[in-house]
Write a structure and sequence with these properties.
Keywords: DNA-binding, Repressor, Transcription, Transcription regulation. This is Transcriptional regulator, LacI family. The protein is built from 13 helices and 12 strands. By secondary structure, it is an alpha/beta fold. The chain has 3 domains: 54 residues, 434 Repressor (Amino-terminal Domain), CATH 1.10.260; 128 residues, Response regulator (Rossmann fold), CATH 3.40.50.2300; 131 residues, 3-Layer(aba) Sandwich (Rossmann fold), CATH 3.40.50.2300. The strands form 2 sheets. Strands 2-1-3-4-5-11 form a 6-stranded parallel β-sheet, with helices on both faces. Helix 1 packs across helix 2 and helix 5 crosses helix 13.
Length: 339
């Protein structure tokens, strides 16, 4: 049995947005050009579309809920982001459906299919790096996309909300250079992700700008999940000429990296200066208190929800929102040890 036509079918056949079809069905809810109104009404007639169905769809569809697809809520950064998104959406009268992917593209595809079936109007997400086609399919259904923290180059019509990754990595690197460090270890996410790529590139650019030769042995781009932060630190410490400072720009691996330093009895900052991308309260309670790049999760959430709901309400154009992170200098950085 053939499925009855949906409001999306009408919008696609008439070459208009769902919002325009809604205005035609609910006469008086917004301006529609006469020619456009006539085209939509003709399409409704040709498809034998029934407005009663539209009323049910509009109630449970694009404006009723948001999907939130996050990589890993065991990562404190994403857990705080999820909490902030839910609070912000609730304050604006919208419900949130949370899905996690564990950085697995297959799980991400399942999540997107579920959200499409639930007719969410918008999705806020930290995407994996290999699923551009799946995101484009969801977007083609009329779902508004907002990528937060990282983005996909293959999905050009999604909004992006992130910190200024380049500036943050550059500030951390220049702080250590200013203290006299020349061998700086750098641990970041995979180069296939926008955050891993941009932070690593900015670190390398800062070294080059100061005339410091780039030693690729000091760079580690590792997965977000697992315990590879520990292995990365271990391999850096075993170098013939180990680093005198370390930047951990992979938030998910901060705890593993710090644990390995403590297991190796590395004194901070006497033996090794340390900067981490994290805003977890424990970084201030650690001895010594850690110098950090503080990522403003509440602001990231607020801008993401705002953009998603704005795109839903008036078909606003896509845009990128870049938020400054805060560089907080504490006690874990100092001049390099004499060698």
């Amino acid at each position: 049995m053939q499925k009855p036509p949906t409001i999306r079918d009408v919008a696609a056949a008439a070459d208009v947005s769902i919002a325009v079809v809604s205005r035609v069905l609910n006469d008086g809810t917004g301006p529609v050009a006469p020619a456009t109104r006539e085209r939509v009404l003709k399409t409704i007639e040709e498809l034998a579309y029934r407005p009663r169905t539209a009323a049910r769809e509009l109630k449970s569809g694009p404006t009723s809920s948001l999907g939130l697809v996050l990589a890993d809520v065991t990562n404190p950064f994403f857990a705080r982001l999820a909490d902030s998104v839910v609070q912000e959406a609730r304050a604006r009268g919208s419900q949130v459906i949370l899905m996690t992917t564990q950085e697995d593209p297959a799980l991400e595809q399942d999540a997107l299919e579920t959200l499409a079936a639930r007719r969410v109007g918008g999705v806020i997400a930290t995407p994996t790096s290999t699923n551009a086609d799946a995101w484009l399919r969801l977007e083609a259904l009329g779902t508004r996309l907002v990528f937060v923290d990282r983005h996909l180059l293959g999905v050009p019509h999604a909004d992006v909300v992130s910190i200024d990754n380049e500036r943050s990595a550059r500030e951390a690197t220049e702080h250590l250079l200013g203290l006299g460090h020349r061998r700086i270890g750098f641990i970041s996410g995979p180069l296939s992700t926008s955050t891993g790529r941009s932070r690593t590139d900015a670190h390398v650019a800062a070294l080059t700008a100061h005339g410091i030769p780039v030693d690729r042995q000091l760079l580690r781009n590792i997965p977000f999940r697992g315990d590879q932060g520990s292995d990365a630190v271990g391999s850096l410490l075993e170098l013939e000429s180990p680093p005198t400072a370390l930047i951990v720009a992979n938030t998910a691996q901060v705890a593993a990296a710090v644990r390995r330093l403590r297991q190796g009895s590395v004194r901070i900052p006497q033996d090794l200066s340390l900067i981490v991308f994290d805003d977890n309260p424990w970084t201030e309670l650690f001895t010594p208190a850690l110098t950090i790049i503080r990522q403003p999760t509440a602001l990231l959430a607020a801008h993401s929800v705002e953009r998603a709901l704005l795109r839903l309400s008036d078909d606003a154009e896509t845009r990128s929102t870049v938020i400054d992170a805060e560089f907080v200098v504490r006690s874990s950085t100092a001049q390099p040890p004499a060698r």
